[in-house]
């Protein structure tokens, strides 16, 4: 992405799947919002329109895959990179870790080409990663040729490029700061020197024909009065989809970002959105902002909290005082909760009506222990052991807090309801 931008192209970046972290780096590399294409969360019919929306005024769209080309939801190809490529009719460039390969690369690529043909997609070529030498590149290029694939470039092995990771994957671009920009610049130089980006642009020619998604069209008549919706941001709250903010604005909200580690609520706040992120990394900072915690606790307007936002609304996080909006305690664990969920809303709220069904995903290592039962569970979904109830709806439905991440583009009515309720609390 960075090399294409450096070559003068306007690049629209996308990520297959629900991941929030990679799109943050895409934004730094391209200067445009990183966006997700996830058919599990939004359905197959929205993939084309969301791609069209995100690629407006761009010369080329680059879609980073997820896992392997054909890996999607467990036991299914749904949500895989191959499915997204097939839905859009775009070619695929494989990136292969070539360390330890020579002639066997041909067999590997033959398998991908054959499987791609069965899936109705086209592999345009390959980029080789971690190539040992010029001779190694020659051997690999010949092997790829026997599989009928062009080698667009070969990246040499280097220990200079690294991006820090932790318990939920890479450290976010927001937290990584200047080092993230430096890493992207180094990667850009490496790709520009060793990959034929012009050949990739030529191979990428395709016609994605689908109506563009329009946030103003899907939310309907906007709320009156420009209610201020405070959107938590900064290093602790970085998980969000670009379409969410666009929908909030289209629904009539005046979106105001703030950093809960140091800021107070924006003036005139009528509603609050607390997205996911890493509150456990910044619990001390969040706890020390006592004035904001009191403001949140005393709010009378709607609150939408996901994952990190849920833990922030608890009485404490590993002993660090939080907002105490919910009578619950949050704690960090060694267990990773990860995966898609087919959920039903079992309590009506400012976002969802009772009985609404949707697909979401979980991605966390914290857990929440509810104490009084004053809150009603937000969701229920089937598990291998039965039915799990999760999240909390409180305050007569004006507070919706949950570990479940949802994609607002799939449920614009929820955003419209939220902003409409915010307008009544101005």
UniProtKB/TrEMBL annotation:
Matches recorded under Pfam families: CbiA, GATase_3
Gene3D superfamilies reported for this sequence: 3.40.50.880, P-loop containing nucleotide triphosphate hydrolases (3.40.50.300)
GO MF annotation list: ATP binding; cobyrinic acid a,c-diamide synthase activity
Boundaries of every CobQ/CobB/MinD/ParA nucleotide binding domain copy: 2-168
Residue span(s) of domain CobB/CobQ-like glutamine amidotransferase: 231-408
Record keyword ATP-binding present: yes
Keywords recorded for this protein, A-Z: ATP-binding, Glutamine amidotransferase, Ligase, Magnesium, Nucleotide-binding
Protein name: Cobyrinic acid a,c-diamide synthase
Organism of origin: Mycobacteroides immunogenum
Lineage: Bacteria, Bacillati, Actinomycetota, Actinomycetes, Mycobacteriales
């Amino acid at each position: 992405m960075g090399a294409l931008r450096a070559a003068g192209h306007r690049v629209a970046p996308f990520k297959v799947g629900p991941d929030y972290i990679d799109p943050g780096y895409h934004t730094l590399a391209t200067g445009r919002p990183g966006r997700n294409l996830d058919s599990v969360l939004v359905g197959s019919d929205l993939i084309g329109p969301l791609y069209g929306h995100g690629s407006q005024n761009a010369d080329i769209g680059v879609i980073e895959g997820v896992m392997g080309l054909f890996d999607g939801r467990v036991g299914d190809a749904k949500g895989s990179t191959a499915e997204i490529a097939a839905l859009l009719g775009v070619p695929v460039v494989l990136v292969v870790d070539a360390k330890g390969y020579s002639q066997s690369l041909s067999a590997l690529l033959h398998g991908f080409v054959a499987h791609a043909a069965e899936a109705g997609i086209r592999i345009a070529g390959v980029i080789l990663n971690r190539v040992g030498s010029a001779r190694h590149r020659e051997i690999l290029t010949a092997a790829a040729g026997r599989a009928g694939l062009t080698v667009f470039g070969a990246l040499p092995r280097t220990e200079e490029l690294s991006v820090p990771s932790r318990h939920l994957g890479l450290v976010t671009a927001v937290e990584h700061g200047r080092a993230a920009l430096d890493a992207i610049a180094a990667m850009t130089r490496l790709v520009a020197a060793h990959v034929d980006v012009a050949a990739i642009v030529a191979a990428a020619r395709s016609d994605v024909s689908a109506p563009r998604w329009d946030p103003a069209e899907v939310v309907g008549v906007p709320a009156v009065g420009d209610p201020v919706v405070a959107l938590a941001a900064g290093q602790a709250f970085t998980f969000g989809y670009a379409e969410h903010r666009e929908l909030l604005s289209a629904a009539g909200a005046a979106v105001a970002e703030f950093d809960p580690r140091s800021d107070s609520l924006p003036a005139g706040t009528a509603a609050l959105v607390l997205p996911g992120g890493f509150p456990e990394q910044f619990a001390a900072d969040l706890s020390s902002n006592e004035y904001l915690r009191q403001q949140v606790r005393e709010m009378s307007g709607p609150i939408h909290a996901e994952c990190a936002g849920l833990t922030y609304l608890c009485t404490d996080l590993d002993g660090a005082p939080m907002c105490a909006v919910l009578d619950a305690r949050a704690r960090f664990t060694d267990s990773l909760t990860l995966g898609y969920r087919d959920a039903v809303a079992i309590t009506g709220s400012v976002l969802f009506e009772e009985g609404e069904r949707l697909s979401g995903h979980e991605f966390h290592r914290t857990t929440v222990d509810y104490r009084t039962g004053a809150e009603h569970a937000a969701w229920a979904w089937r598990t291998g052991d039965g039915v799990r109830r999760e999240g909390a709806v409180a305050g007569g439905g004006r507070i919706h807090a949950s570990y479940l991440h949802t994609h607002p583009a799939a449920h614009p009515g929820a955003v419209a309801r939220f902003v409409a309720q915010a307008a009544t609390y101005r």
